[in-house]
Design goal:
Order of helices and strands of chain A: EEEEEHEEHHHEHEEEH
Radius of gyration of chain A: 18 Å
Mean pLDDT of chain A: 91
Number of helices of chain B: 10
Helix content of chain B: over 70%
Structural class of chain A: alpha/beta
Helix content of chain A: 25-40%
Order of helices and strands of chain B: HHHHHHHHHH
CATH superfamily of chain A: P-loop containing nucleotide triphosphate hydrolases
Number of domains of chain B: 1
Low-confidence stretches of chain B: none
Oligomer: heterodimer
Distance between the termini of chain B: 21 Å
Low-confidence stretches of chain A: none
Largest sheet of chain B: none
Number of strands of chain B: 0
Largest sheet of chain A: 8 strands, mixed
CATH architecture of chain A: 3-Layer(aba) Sandwich
CATH class of chain A: Alpha Beta
Largest interface: A-B, 23 and 20 residues
Distance between the termini of chain A: 35 Å
Shape of chain B: globular
Strand content of chain B: under 5%
Shape of chain A: globular
Number of helices of chain A: 6
Chain lengths: ~230, ~250
């Protein structure tokens, strides 16, 4: 790993959650998960999985610096880019105009290429795109912004939930083939891709643990998720 | 990034065309709806009056709503958060949207100024010179009043919703521009210490309205008065900007 490569270091005891506000007393911390072992993430694909409401999005948001952790230390070495589930662009703009607004000319060419790969209509207004196609806009924007840049960390919150099977396969193929030293944490419910990826981060029983492809059995992990 | 996104949306929506068209054409059309034939010399001052009135109207009625709506949309749609995760600071996020609104504000002020300077200017050289100075003073004060309010509309939109934020900014603008002179009038005939204090603390936007000074050709303000007013509005702007910064919320 070179000095400019992005990384994430999470120390044992790092607690993720949020503080519930109360009118006349101190905010009450609601803890979602605690890290039970030191975790170091290097460039590559990392799958984050958990059942609904167990803290996947909160974990990504905390890593992105959008909210504080409840205790402990975690450090993201690089520029984070959090693409949340709730992200929406203005309905009137088409994908082409969105890319023109947020990307440099060099990266726009790459965005056009990736949009073609993912069968995204560039001329259709964002508001008229299906949810799947809107997700493609988010993915293409984020990937293009990070493309050929140094020290980029992509935190993608359920980016493929509305994509069809074929586009998912193409995206996975692109991710695996991409030579940019990017650190991607992709939050999703399907674990089938995990054996091909760098690691699997599993949130279960209030803890976060890292598993490596040669060390786990998918069936057991699905059981563990319950 | 946010600036270009917001600007692209504003251009795509095209409502600015209507606003600019209004500021550009109404000052020429409106005076002819009056019985101007009786005293044709008033047509030029009437045009100047209409130009500034249109500018106030469009700024209060259209631009401040655009600001509130931008603030609300970018907060509700997660774009402020997306920018934050990329390392864009709170000030920068707010300022980028504000800069987008300022493009249209400055364009509208430039149109009103051009109408005043080129189509309403008195014919005598001395009067014309004083007229132009007054126009520039008015434009400067107008920007000093409206630009912090645009900033406030964006910040409030990010915390509440576009309608509530707009109503608040519209309310404070109307109060400062039109209601305060009536409060002053009341205070001249009554003793009300609390109301007096309230009057002192209120934003006196009405003093930036130099329309009557133009229409009645009273000449420009002297440098001391102009300097004092500039300082007052800079201070008021600083308070407004600080409040806006505190009110800004990146996520609904």
């Amino acid at each position: 790993m070179s000095q400019t490569d992005p990384y994430i270091r999470i120390s044992t005891g790092w607690k993720v959650g949020y503080k519930k506000r109360r009118l006349f007393s101190e905010p009450e911390p609601i803890e979602l998960l605690t890290v039970q072992q030191d975790i170091v993430l290097k460039p590559g694909l990392h799958l984050l999985a958990a059942r609904n409401g167990r803290g996947k999005s909160t974990l990504l948001r905390t890593l992105a610096g959008l909210q504080p952790s409840l205790a402990g230390d975690a450090k993201a070495g690089g520029r984070t880019q959090y693409v949340g589930e709730g992200l929406r662009f203005d309905a009137e703009l088409n994908a082409s105009k969105i890319f023109s607004a947020i990307l440099s000319p060099r990266k726009r060419d790459f965005a056009t290429h990736l949009a073609g790969e993912l069968e995204l209509e560039l001329d259709k207004p964002y508001g008229k795109l299906s949810k799947g196609n809107q997700q493609k806009v988010h993915i293409v924007a984020a990937e293009s912004m990070a493309h050929q840049s140094v020290g980029e960390i992509l935190l993608l919150d359920e980016p493929i939930s509305n994509l069809d099977y074929h586009v998912r396969m193409r995206l996975n193929a692109y991710w695996k083939a991409d030579s940019t030293p990017l650190l991607r944490i992709v939050c999703m419910h399907e674990l089938e891709w995990a054996p091909e990826w760098k690691s699997l981060l599993l949130i279960a029983q209030g803890g976060l643990a890292q598993h490596f492809p040669n060390q786990f059995n998918l069936e057991k992990l699905y059981v563990q998720l319950n | 990034m946010l600036f270009r996104l917001a600007l692209s949306t504003m251009i795509e929506r095209k409502s600015f065309v209507l606003a600019l068209f209004f500021v550009l054409t109404v000052p020429f059309a409106l005076p002819y709806l009056t019985p101007w034939e009786e005293t044709p010399v008033v047509i030029e001052p009437a045009r100047a009056q209409a130009a500034w009135a249109c500018l106030w109207l469009v700024t209060l009625g259209w631009l401040f709503y655009q600001g509130s709506d931008m603030g609300w949309r970018y907060s509700a749609n997660g774009l402020f958060q997306y920018a934050k995760s990329l390392g864009v600071s709170k000030w920068s996020r707010l300022c980028q949207l504000w800069a987008c609104g300022m493009i249209f504000l400055v364009a509208m002020v430039a149109i009103a100024l051009a109408i005043n300077v080129f189509f309403c200017r008195p014919h005598q050289a001395d009067e014309a010179r004083m007229w132009i100075i007054t126009c520039f003073q008015y434009a400067g004060l107008f920007l000093l009043v409206t630009s912090p309010l645009l900033f406030l509309s964006i910040a409030l939109g990010s915390r509440f919703n576009s309608a509530a934020a707009y109503c608040f900014v519209l309310g404070i603008s109307v109060y400062g521009l039109f209601a305060l002179p009536y409060v002053e009038l009341y205070l001249q005939h009554a003793t009300a210490p609390l109301l007096s204090l309230f009057w002192y603390l209120s934003p006196h936007y009405h003093i930036a309205d130099l329309t009557s000074r133009l229409v009645f050709r009273m000449g420009p303000m002297d440098m001391t008065a102009m300097g004092m007013m500039t300082l007052y509005f800079l201070g008021l702007g600083l308070v407004t900007w600080s409040c806006s910064y505190l009110m800004f919320k990146e996520q609904k």
